[in-house]
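Example record

Each entry pairs one chain with its bound ligand, threonylcarbamoyladenylate.
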Amino acid sequence: MKRAIGRRTCENMPLRLEAKARMDKNALETVEKAVEVLRRGGLVALPTETVYGLAADAQNPKAIAKVFEAKGRPLHHPLIVHLGSADELGQWAKNIPKTAWKLAEQFWPGPLTLLLQRAPRVLAAVTGGQETVALRVPSHPLALAVLQAFQSGVVAPSANTFGRLSPTLAQHVREDLKEKVDWVVDGGPCHIGIESTIVDLSQEVPSIVRPGGLSPEVLAKVLGFVPQRSTHTPRISGSLPAHYAPKTQLVLAKPEALVHCATALCAEGKRVAVLHPHKTALPENAQWVCIPQELSALAQQLYALLHRLDKEGFDVLLTSLPEADDIGAALRDRLTRAANAHLATVPPNND
Ligand code: TXA
Ligand code: MG
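Structure tokens for the complex follow.
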């Protein structure tokens, strides 16, 4: 018995080491392949800590055109340029305020995008003809490895069809964009699960253009004040009232009205999923779907959950908005826009 354990241990040790070496080699090959595809103007789905991005060479107009085509995105909607390090900031932006360097130092790599005046090298196709450029250094190790090996900027909008749910798994990208992507880098589930916070530093007072994975309260630690939502509205697809939507209709109700609302929808013959942290008594045609109460866990799981529920044949997904503190503001933003996407298509209630 002793001998058997000893043998198992001895035999398994080198195996485990080999497996690790194999994994590293695989990751290395994946990175090399991704860089090769980017260099020849192809599209790579890249995992980031927020959502998967559809990456292309930011200096190649043909590759950029492919990104817009694959997503079905209007050409004047600008793209975020992803960099391998904050040291590259000066190559892509000009008149960079001190605040930008401070934010970059504190939060990059991470879920923060900075809106700055664009440097001359930034193509008009990237900025939609605007004078600002959005820049970010993502923290996912595979994304960082690709960006550092590529040694230049990479545009990467979320890797989904325009207006649809962002992908937080490689499988979401494959199912949505299929052969429109040349190479999918599978980096597992995105650990933040909601897009980056976009901070506009091109105006005198920094403001939030899109709430996201980094909360205003955390940004305040560097800024010295809690940044407000931007009143200046740049052209930005994520700021359209209807965006980030599942295919299934999403309806929002106050927490105290959820059961009543589910009952009314079931009475119309609808099959309803009620997304809520706590189980409640529901009508027969409604099903409780447990969601985390904790905001960062909810953000991490939200898109994946909506992707899954889209396949389960519900007529309506019913939920409430979380509190607005921390990244709750970003979750409220995404859920509201997702609900709006269906308002135009909801048949009038004839009862
Ligand atoms: O977390 C993220 O930011 C992800 C990952 C992949 O990095 N990317 C992402 O990209 O969400 P996208 O394109 O789906 O959303 C970026 C938003 C868009 O709404 C776009 O209009 C806006 O950023 N944007 C990009 N450049 C801009 C600019 N120069 N001025 C104003 N808005 C800009
Ligand atoms: Mg997007």
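The first helix runs from residue 2 to 39.
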